[in-house]
Amino acid sequence: MKGALEGWRRNLAVLWLGTFIAGMGFSEVMPFLSLYVGQMGDFSKGELTIYSGITYAVTFFVVAVVSPLWGKLADRRSRKLMLLRSSLGMAIVIGLMGFVHNIWILILLCFLQGLCAGYIPNASALIATETPKESSGTAIGILTTGYVSGNLIGPILGGILAQVFSIRLTFIITGVLLLIVFVLSLTLVHENFKPATDAPVKHQGSLLSQFKNPTLIITLLVSTMIIQMGNNSITPIISLYVKELMHNVGPITVVAGIIAALPGISTLLSAPRLGQLGDSRGTDRILVFGFVFAILMYFPQGFVSSIWTLGLLRFMIGISDGALFPTVQTLLSKNTPQALTGTIFSWNQSFQAMGSMLGSLLGGLVSNWFNYNGVFIFTALSLLLNFIVVLIFIPSMRHPLARKNQKMRV
Asked: Which sequence ranges are marked TM in the entry (predicted)?
């Protein structure tokens, strides 16, 4: 038993570092992708906007389509194999981006980047299957801080690298970092893999029919999409909103960067603690808290007149993210047969990618129709609707205390 515990803790430590580097590597190049597109040719403003949109969207689109396929393969061939596929593939593709001079080759590489995605959900799936159930919430909460902190540091590091060296060299450095992730995963991650057989699938029919509560699974996946849609609807306009609040005076880019980083900081601080609370007091209660807290924090952001107030509210949003994302993953893992864990975590990534696409599109449309304020109100209303759906289709959420007592009896 002691050896098993040491095994899952070692996996958690290695995969935390792996997801940190993967999150950092991805986020340190994405903010500058539009600038890089501008180096691919002499484009007009309209052409640059279209090409930039395609390069961003194609990766998320491919991730949404292929993630379930990779997840199914993970359950049949092992999650560690998918970690190796993703880290090595991303290292090669992102490294090659530093050598291209044609927009269509860049778009092709972004397409291949989507095909190679999946390190973080497979790391989550491996941790979920290799960790004792009573500690899964804590472990997933800790793992969440890995890629959240990587995403937090990535843009800062990427900006420094791009300024000191160049955007091209930043892609190459990122490829090297991801190659390190591949080596760490290959040599230090251990998985007691039990492949899913085809026989049960043939008898049980569709994927959802293999779950005790398919409605709960669908509701959680849709929740992942809406939560991510809310986060991404803010991303395209946050710097413009900061500029408006500062009346176009002062270090706008620096302040915008800090405001954008604040949710990641609070998620980093809160996710492990909220994961522990979920294990001890009931995961349902943490999910209810996350929704209510997020709704209450998003609404006033559309009416602030001070940059300090916006910063405080953005910091609070990170706490709700620390409750929502890990808790949804924990509920998925606890309500999924072990043989399908990789499949369902990849479906979760697929829905998260769809949320990223929808958030970027809807955020731009809403801000065009109702100004920046409307984006925050739209996000709050979306989460409110999501919360109502959760309460309707997951009855235990209406009685989280009863759920806790039931868990303690089990």
From this structure: 12-36, 48-70, 82-100, 106-128, 140-165, 171-190, 249-271, 283-300, 376-394
